[in-house]
Amino acid sequence: MKSFWNEKEAKKIKKDLLQLRVYTSRLLGKEEDLVLHGGGNTSVKIREKNIFGEEEDILYVKGSGWDLATIEAPGFAPVKLSALCRLAELDNLSDMEMVKCQRMAMTDPAAPNPSVEAILHAIIPYTFVDHTHADAVVVMTNTPDGKKRIREAFGDRVLIVPYVMPGFILAKKIYEMTKGMDWDSIDGMILLNHGVFTFHDDPKVSYENMIAIVSKAEKYLTKEGTKPIQQIKSAKPDGLKMAQLRRGVSELMKKPVLCRLDDSGASAAFSKLSNVRRIANRGPLTPDHIIRTKRTPVVLSENFEKDLLAYSNAYQQYFEKYNTGEQEQLDAAPRWAIWPGQGTLSFGPTVKAIRIIEDITRHTKKAIYQAEQLGGWKALPKPDLFEMEYWSLEQAKLKKAGNSKPMQGKIALVTGAASGIGKACVEQLVAEGAVVAALDINPNITHCFDKKEVLGIKCDVTNSKQLKNAIEQTVAFFGGLDMLVSNAGIFPKSASIAQMDEKLWQKSMDINVTSHQQLIQLSLPYLELGFDPAIVIIGSKNVPAPGPGAAAYSVAKAGLTQLGRVAALELGDKGIRVNMLHPNAVFDTGVWTDEVLEARAKNYGLTVEEYKTNNILKTEVTSKDVAGLAIAMLGNTFSKVTGAQIPIDGGNDRVI
After folding, report:
1. Share of the chain above pLDDT 90, in %
2. How many Å apart are CA 103 and CA 111, to the nearest integer?
3. Residue 62 forms beta bridges with which residues?
4. Cβ(416)–Cβ(487) under 8 Å?
5. Contact in structure between 438 and 457 (CB atoms under 8 Å)
6. What distance, in Å, lies between the first and last C-alpha atoms of the chain?
7. Which of 1, 81, 301, 568 could be 57's S-S partner, Cβ–Cβ 3.0 to 4.6 Å?
8. Which residues are catalytic?
9. What DSSP element (H or E) covers 292?
């Protein structure tokens, strides 16, 4: 563990204690082995004048919802130090009362809620206080002889605190333990099964004390002979098995979720440990993680359905055993899984959620493997973990998450996604909460969308091998498939039937019909395991109202529409909806350059603007308009509709 303190950077802000607090907090937050995703907290005590000109001591402590890696000054909640210290003297204080009292003592009502550890930060008599969940330290404490090992490594220079619930109970425990203690006699506190506190009036010393303590723990682990797991190569994942698992977890959560496989060498090796089922079911790295990962993962066998049923039954029993009668049971779905020979999987409604779980479980697997070499992985007992999982303050965090977006957790695939209607569909799907595989022959598709919810894949849709690989890549990346927007197409050069070029005709058939049939055929096994699966096919006004010179295009689009109608008939009993859109005169696509528009408008004796709105409603139809209707047809509004053909053309007299 290295110190990232930069004297030159620190000197620029040395007179601003809050900015120094931001600086060192970010130094801690950038190190994953110290804190992960909102974990840990920091504070600084500042003497300042209030509105009456009176000086008072204010504790600026990390606010709820902020992450140490990215925290800024507004992320620290200002609380009157005297009020917090008085709270520590109380004999009892409920969690909700504590939150209320801390908020009442704030000097800025617009600031976030103070950390639940605010009282503890207040009673530590130093300007700067740092708290992390350092992996190396927690590994030592999560062993049968944890307390003894801590004493061996640190001697009397740390205060060892037995595990108690965070918040007021922990603050009260340390308040009682430190009465009359010479704080200068210790460099920090180690909270068993929880983490580390360091403190000092100098921000550099407080920060570097943390680095020193964790470094000692790391050296201790090395001295005791702990070694990293020997990495192995994982087997190729079975996409259908992943989709099946994702479907089962979604059903347990009662909403669609994503599924991400970590098949790294270390993860694959961990999954193949002979005792993995036994050691992985003892509990999380720290109790703070349980809100993200639940107490245990599901360890998979050949029968995923049986595994999930056993997991949900075990969770039900766990809840019934420890429920005091005041709690309402959360869903019984796992948040991660161990897939022997493959690696581990994370489940969550968003890309952000599964990445957080993936990060936490990566550190957890490493810690378990290290602790096993120290005599055995020993997490907190079930009653303590249940208390943390159903802690009112943790449940409040879940409720604050708010309502999810309509398509959150759903997985879509869009062809022809680099421009025009396809691109607009991708953007609209993401706005609705979905994740999307965006396919296009244009190589720019791989970086066309700067969004973590979009997987850009270069693919020639007329190449069945490439199309199959793209679908498999989508399933491996997101966990399954729920929705298709079959959009890829071309508008061939005008030619009469008499003058039709054979290659032009065949190219239109290959792209505008056959590629769509292949896409549906190859996607079907995954759509059957999808969540409310649906297909939208982008047809054309030329189906009901063809024009001369457009035989290659019109016939292909008519064939595509017929394909969609048959698909609706064949796939209805599988719960898969198939509907078609017939756009017309959508000019904000790559087909319509300024030159082409001017030429076409001139041909009709119209201005460009008149040509764009040459329909009954006198309105322009854009790619975004088509995308909006396509996404609506994929959603709940059209949940009872299949086989429909809907024009989106501003009203075309020939169609009407």
Report:
1. 91
2. 9
3. 76
4. yes
5. yes
6. 73
7. 81
8. 553
9. helix 290-293
Decide: 643 and 578 in contact? Cβ < 8 Å: yes
Q: What is the pLDDT of residues 83-111, one digit of tens each?
A: 999 999 999 999 999 999 999 999 999 99
Q: Give the count of beta carbons closer than 10 Å to the beta carbon of residue 476.
A: 18
- Name the token pair of 54: 């009176």
Q: What tokens appear for 596 in the block? A: 């082409």
Q: Which two tokens stand for residue 56?
A: 């008072």
Q: Which residues pair with 42 in a beta bridge?
A: 130
The reported pLDDT for the residue numbered 507 is 96
Give the mean pLDDT of 295-314: 97
The average pLDDT across 329-341 equals: 96
The larger pLDDT score, comparing residue 91 to residue 397, is at 91
How large is the average pLDDT for residues 156-165?
A: 96
Task: Give the H or E element holding residue 538.
Answer: strand 534-538
**Between the CA of residue 169 and those of 88, 92, 117, 395, 638, what are the distances in Å?**
9, 8, 10, 18, 52
Tokens standing for residue 544: 């009901």
Give the CA distances from residue 314 to residues 37, 252, 291, 320, 339, in Å, rounded to whole numbers and listed in that order: 28, 13, 18, 10, 19
Q: CA-CA distance, 312 to 408, in Å (whole number)?
A: 23
Beta pairing class for 336-339 and 298-299 = parallel
Of the candidates 209, 216, 212, the one whose C-alpha atom is nearest the C-alpha of residue 152 is 216
pLDDT score, position 600: 78
Kindly tell me the burial class for residue 645, based on how many C-beta atoms sit within 10 Å of its own C-beta (0-12, 13-18, 19 or more). middle
Quote the mean pLDDT of the chain.
Answer: 95
**Taking residues 210-216, what's their average pLDDT?**
97
pTM of the predicted structure, to 2 decimals: 0.93
For helices 515-527 and 464-478, angle between their N-to-C axes, nearest 10 degrees: 30
DSSP one-letter string for 459-474:
--TT-HHHHHHHHHHH
Q: DSSP letters of 393-458?
A: HHHHHHHHT-PPPTTTT-EEEEESTTSHHHHHHHHHHHHTT-EEEEEESSGGGGGS---TTEEEEE
160-197 b/e (C-beta count within 10 Å ≥ 16 → b): bbebbbbbbebbbbbbeebeeeeeeebbbbbbbbbbbb
Amino acid sitting at position 9? E
Give the closest residue to 530 by CA, choosing from 229, 150, 170, 244: 244
| Tokens, residue 433 | 């909460």
Which ranges of 231-303 would DSSP assign to H, the alpha helix?
A: 239-253, 265-271, 276-279, 290-293
Q: Which residues pair with 648 in a beta bridge?
A: 583
pLDDT of res. 402: 67
Give the span between the Cα atoms of 262 and 260, in whole angstroms.
7
Beta bridge partners of 262: 344
**Residue 278: in which H helix or E strand, if any?**
helix 276-279
CA–CA separation, 343 and 245 (whole Å): 14
Burial group, residue 120, by CB count within 10 angstroms (0-12, 13-18, 19+): buried
Identity of the amino acid at 144: P
Mean pLDDT of 160-169: 95
State mean pLDDT over 154-165.
Answer: 96
Could you please report the per-residue DSSP string of 170-233? Answer: HHHHHHHHTTT--GGG-SEEEETTTEEEEEESSHHHHHHHHHHHHHHHHHHHHHTT--PPPP-P
Distance CA 247, CA 258 (A): 9
